[in-house]
Amino acid sequence: MYAKLFGKLTLIGSALVLPPLLGVYLQGKPMADYLEFPPVPRYAAHAPFSWGVFVLFAGIALLLVGPLLLAWLRARPEPSPRPSRPRRFPWWGWLGVLLVAVSWTLAWTRMPWFGSLQHHTFTPLWLGFILTVNAMTWHRSGRCLLTHHTKLFLALFPISSLFWWLFEYLNRFLQNWVYLGIEHSTPGQYVLFSSLCFSTVLPAVLGVVEWFRSFPRLNAAFAEGWRLPALGTRDYGLLFLLGAGALLGAAVWPDYLFPMVWVAPLLVVVGVQGLFGEDTLLDPLRMGDWRVLALPALAALVCGFFWELWNSQSLAHWDYAIPYVDRFHLFEMPVLGYAGYLPFGLEAAAATSLLPGGRWVFQS
Hints:
The chain is mainly alpha-helical and 364 residues long.
């Protein structure tokens, strides 16, 4: 069991880490520039805005979002009985609301007495969000990740740090975002405080996924769709190679293949799971059940809105430099950049499925 798990994780890690380095090597560029730590805030010379690329990407985004919206509008769920006794909003949910309110206020104000801690409001803000979303779910359905999948819930925090550190690594080759306001951190401080911030990503996304599951209309919208044929070993092998190859290509042609950073890891994980004969996010599609894809994608989009909202006025924040489409911003993010949250939600679900108890993501 453990040998299989080790082999699976080694294969996934190698396919995500090594191809970008190979791309740098093939170009004859110094690898030290991509491995410096902490990373130096700077922008690459990205291609300027292009209406042609913008329209192309906007069309792709509409193709992704349009069917989801149409399915939701057409959904006619069966009425579900209401509980005889309405559940009170739990006390720990109110604690989450208070934590969000206080942290949000401190993040967006510049009070001298709080100056030394101004850079560290992200983690308590998102802990408050996670508590609040779990409480909202418990209030609606009587269960949530925190109360009924506690071991998985707690495991998501350290795994989430590793999960987002991977994207930080991949961004070295793209330089699509940069952190400002933390330039004077030591390496130890950078690792500690960044890891704490990154630890909230998966619990936030998966918390919203379960909240969505408590809405009959959302479940009905995506429970019966197109049935896709089953994939075989060769198909999963092809997905794996496409994912690894896309990361190599993104390092060589970052202006053209930067969206692959949000797609390739998903292809790699699903490909490896399929090669090892395990369940994947694509399996429910054989029965026409698209909830395992639609709900994580929409959950990440919701979280993305709040990530960008709270980032916009915080002292320590990130800024973007995206080729061809860097215009029409909603907060700091170009509006088309929000489309990247859709596959990111699937990657969050795929990463969770690798954990003991992670089959929770396949439940409906």
